[in-house]
Design a protein that fits this description.
Layout: H1 2-27, E1 35-37, E2 40-42, E3 53-58, E4 61-65, E5 73-79, E6 82-89, E7 91-92, E8 98-99, E9 102-107, E10 110-117, E11 120-128, E12 142-144, E13 153-162, E14 165-171, E15 179-183, E16 188-191, H2 204-212, E17 216-218, E18 223-227, E19 232-240, E20 243-253, E21 257-260, E22 263-266, E23 274-278, E24 282-287, E25 306-313, E26 318-328, E27 330-333, E28 339-345, E29 352-358
């Protein structure tokens, strides 16, 4: 009789387990395209913005990262069908107001620029975007002192999550720390407890760096979104004391890697990861497709290009998935979510091109 009861129990349990596996597999599939968009090519009027990477937007302004070491950031304005450069700044170097490993985030009406090295943060500045010429006028910059924080290993990525509060991809070496909240109100550094149970066999510091080397984007209400590349992990979180509350897990596949000579070696047969941009209302996510052996281009464009973007709200609810008529290299939404801007290539000339799409 007992054997029959056990068999009945497992017969009921097995369909439930299979159902959960199917649900997880379905959750981790890229979302189907729901809308096709045709874009408008914007005229650059001969301006020089080498190797543009769209970072963010503020009102009618676009912040573009460039390969010019004397001006790593170009502040642009979209005027009709034209793009004009209003200012340039952020020099690479070791002098005053110069950066070696600069990372950026935009929050409110400010651009925040952080410099770091593998063992901590060396500088953080807030630059007002409303002030004409502020990118190159150091008197407008607000300095946040970093010398009071402990030494931490970091990849430098960070996001503002409150008044003078930032979540950074950093932690004390050899600890189960990936995120730390830097609070410039009381100069405290609070490590968060997020430590993925991913099954990878490696040293703690190698795992730290594997997960730190991914972008974060934040809101002033304390929420932040984090995604991995490679793998296919994407979640909205909140820092609550030392606890990381995962509010919404959109994808849950962690990257796969091993340790080799104290370095990270990513395994080849896995998802290629996600790229993220945000507005105050929405998440814009490129969940890259898996590549096949022998692929050397994407629809005639370089293999790193893509043409789909999934859009969610900050609660992780799916809104739609768009496909652009030209594969892009980088993208960002307008701050009011009315437009999507992308960079791509003119395949005939090899020139960089900027395209605008209407979203609403």
């Amino acid at each position: 009789m007992r054997s029959i009861s056990i068999l009945i129990f497992f017969s009921l349990l097995l369909p439930l387990a299979v159902s959960c596996q199917r649900k997880n597999a379905a959750m981790n599939e890229r979302k189907p395209v729901t809308e096709e968009l045709s874009g408008e090519v914007l005229r650059l009027n001969g301006i020089q913005v080498p190797s543009p990477v769209l970072l963010s937007s503020y009102d009618d302004l676009l912040l573009v990262k460039t390969s010019d070491n004397n001006a790593k950031i170009a502040l642009c304005r979209v005027d009709g069908d034209s793009v004009k450069v209003l200012g340039r700044g952020i020099k690479k170097g070791r002098g005053p107001y110069e950066f070696i490993y600069a990372n950026y985030c935009v929050s409110g009406d400010s651009l925040f620029v952080m410099d770091s090295n593998p063992m901590g943060f060396t500088a953080l500045y807030g630059i007002p975007l409303k002030v004409a010429g502020a990118l190159s006028d150091y008197s407008c910059w607000r300095r946040y002192p970093c010398d009071g924080f402990p030494k931490m290993i970091t990849a430098g990525y960070f996001a503002r999550i409150g008044q003078r509060r930032f979540v950074v991809n950093a932690g004390e070496p050899g600890t189960q720390q990936i995120f730390t909240v830097l609070d410039f109100n009381d100069m405290s550094a609070t490590p968060l407890d997020f430590w993925p149970d991913d099954g990878n066999e490696c040293g703690t510091e190698v795992k730290q760096m594997a997960y730190m080397n991914n972008r974060v984007f934040g809101l002033a209400d304390g929420r932040f979104v984090y995604g991995t590349r490679p793998g296919r992990y994407l979640s909205v979180m909140r820092a609550d004391g030392t606890t990381t509350k995962v509010l919404s897990e959109i994808y849950d596949i962690f990257p796969q890697f091993v340790e080799k000579n104290h370095n990270i070696r990513y395994l080849p047969d896995q998802h290629k990861g996600v790229n993220i941009r945000v507005s105050d209302r929405r998440l814009y996510v490129a969940a890259f497709p898996d590549r096949k052996d022998g692929d050397d281009n994407y629809k005639g464009f370089p293999l790193s290009f893509f043409d789909e973007i999934e859009i969610y709200d900050w609660d992780g609810r799916f809104i739609k998935c768009i496909r652009t008529d030209r594969p892009y290299s980088t993208f960002c939404p307008s701050s009011d979510d009315k437009y999507l801007y992308t960079t791509t290539l003119n395949l005939e000339t090899g020139d960089d091109v900027m395209v605008r799409y209407e979203l609403e």
